[in-house]
Amino acid sequence: xxxxxxxTTLVISAGQLAGPKLKQIGIDDGIRAxxxxxxxxxxxxxxxxxxATVVAGYFQASLLNRIGQDAIxxxxxxxxxHLQSQSLDYYEREQPGQIISxxxxxxxxxxxxxxxxVTALLADVVVLVGTSVILFGYHPGLAxxxxxxxxxxxxxxxxxxxxxxxxxxxxxxxxxAVTARLHESVAGMxxxxxxxxxxxxxxEFGQLLQEDRDANMAGATVFxxxxxxxxxxxxxxxxxxxxxxxxLILRGELAIGVAVAFVLYLNHLFDPIRRLSEMFATVQRAVxxxxxxxxxxxxxxxxxxxxxxxxxxxxxxxxxxRGVCFSYDSTREILRDVSFRAGFGETVALVGxxxxxxxxxxxxxxxxxxxxxxxxxxxGRDLRSVTLESLRRQIGFVPQEPFLFAxxxxxxxxxxxxxxPDDEVERAARxxxxxxxxxxxxxGYDTDVHERGVRLSGGQRQLIAFARALLVNPRIxxxxxxxxxVDPFTEKRIQEALRMLLHHxxxxxxxxxxxTVVHADQILVVQEGGIAAxxxxxxxxxxxxxxxxxxxxxxxxxxxxxxxxx
Length: 566
Description:
The protein is an alpha/beta fold. It has 20 helices and ten strands.
């Protein structure tokens, strides 16, 4: 396709170069010589060339559009794949709207360059060089007088290059900020309306729009001074041709037809330069966009498969943490010398004050991050020696704030097993106590929940996330406050179902209700990044003042609530 686009470009360029030459022949050898037959042939050839350029233009546009769309498709897909390979720390630093802006807005700027500017650049260069050769062939002195202006044009373009790049980089950043705020506002509209912050939100968004407008106006100001300079040089060239060319005609050193052709070729000389100047804006936008895209593509994920990593066999023994230390930013230690073992079939509960490091322990187990010291073992194998995919396929994760994708409830439940049959989907929903509320919906399992599951309550979203985790039949089940939004009666039924399921897997639970903690085989009391105490419920009530205080403050109220439910 690229070869075809180049060939059609050359055909169009050749047609443009042939036009003035045919007019010169028609005037000098046809009209002035009184040769009507030659004049007729000139007209026929000119029409044929025009028809050929029209056909070539059609195929060029089609081919260029296909090439550009294919290139953008591949680049967007590559960028999306790369984003999926990034570790969680990247998404905790970057705003979703900023990432979306690079995939959409920046790619549009690159697409504009690929679909039009590349071949236009080639065509203009061909026409420029061809015109120069023809002009020097007509009259070297007159051609030289005109070409003296080209270095002046190039100097003007070079002068504005740095300023243009800076303004377009600023414009890319401001539109990314607008996209990020728009994404954030739409996602958080309930909070905005709930706190009656619409007016303030509008002011903040308006400020971002103003910054984007100012950035674009700065770019427009740069070009408002650049393009008149280009036009002035172009007008200077035309004046030189009329003055010097007119003198040559008066002396009888230049034929009328050649003079006409020279004036027409002069447009071919300056039009490409003018278009190249206009194209400069497109090129600069694309260059800035490419810089921003490759800034993402060049970023390496912090968690990757180690060289020689192997697939994790089916987990059969247990999980062990040995002296694990971890920090998110290398300035404040979140975990210090964490060591424990969880055998197969056990339920391990993690309790402790907010910010103690409970969720971080589970993130390390799923290898969303790597510890700075110590090791995590699965059946005696270092976590970093197995592939990420094989590890996470054996983990079912239910977060405190579950995420549901736009689509049906059925598709959300079988997200981890897209090929799961409907009966297994329903069985997982029953175990998670989600089937009853799904069954009363007008469309049942085919109900569209929309993005983030906005049509469901917080508790219903948690139940769907629970069913999704159970359907993959994980060897390790991670529950991070997984039942915090469901009522105690539903939680009790989930706990009863889990007690039957957990004989053949390991469960790690962060909970704020007694029912989840009291039946755990092992309770880890996490304090300031370390394991302050461990044991079963009755043991810790006697031996751990912190656990007893947590129980009295947090769990006792829940115990009374559960007693009422029972």
